[in-house]
Amino acid sequence: MILNGKDIDVTPTARAAPFHTAKIGARIVQALRMSKKATAVDIYAARGSSMPQRIALTMTVGACVAVAWWLLAGSGLGSVGAWFGRDWNAGDRVRRLLLAVALSVYFVRLLFTQFVFLKRAVSWKEASMIGPWVLVIYLSFAIAGGTNGAPFGASGAIGILFFAVGSWVNSYAEYARHVWKQHPENHGRLYTSGLFRYSRHPNYLGDLISFSGLCLIADRWATIAVPLTMLAGFVFANIPALDEHLHDHYGPAFDEYASRTRKLIPFVY
Q: What pLDDT was estimated at residue 35?
């Protein structure tokens, strides 16, 4: 460039721009990775009783159970339908009763998870996110399944089996690990036995199976959104964050375990 009779070379400056842009981009990526790692640490590495949060979450889910029973066994469906200008009549009685019982069983499982199996702290943020999600789940099955007037049939019976198996997978996996961790010689060690031999996260797998069973009991296509949303959350959020925490906490022991064990579904994923 000629400026005031002088030849000025601007090439270094022109070349510097892409360098600075790339450098800024690299810093942004690094910051996002650090943020993701910090989130995983915040959720899975935090320790403490966090009893107020656990009690608040339990009361919230307990209220969801009460609402589900009102909808499925009381006059709730007709009342709520009238609020929205819809004619929601109570459906098959057997289906409604089974859904109410199944949602109550899930609440009992949650109690054991919160007060027996879960050793890490529960933040107010986490509790405030779980409560509304559980409400959406309960309302989805109570309204969609509760208004289904079709006779309870074979698909519902298969759903009962799925729900029972999924509940067992989730609860037994947590219980077996809990018992193993009680032995002093196992403190600080990674548990890889029982159902964890076939899946790194059998508790997540159990939830997917049990809520798929609820879909079959409800016999409404719309309810499939619940296990699909769960699956997306497990695959893209919970499992990556928890695996990163386990890698940081157990190091090579977890890496070796992860190399031979599927994340969620045995022999598949």
A: 44
Task: Quote the distance between the C-alpha of residue 66 and its chain's center.
Answer: 22
Type of residue numbered 8: I
Give the integer Cα–Cα distance in Å for 49 and 154.
44
What is the C-alpha to C-alpha distance for residues 82 and 18, in angstroms, rounded to an integer?
A: 62
Closest to 64 measured CA to CA, from 29, 99, 16, 114:
99
Element (H, E) at 7: strand 6-7
Alpha-carbon distances of 125 from 122, 131, 133, 229, 244, rounded to whole Å: 8, 10, 13, 20, 21
Report the amino acid identity of residue 147: T
* 204: confidence class by pLDDT, cuts 50, 70, 90: very high
CB-based contact 190:250 (threshold 8 Å): yes
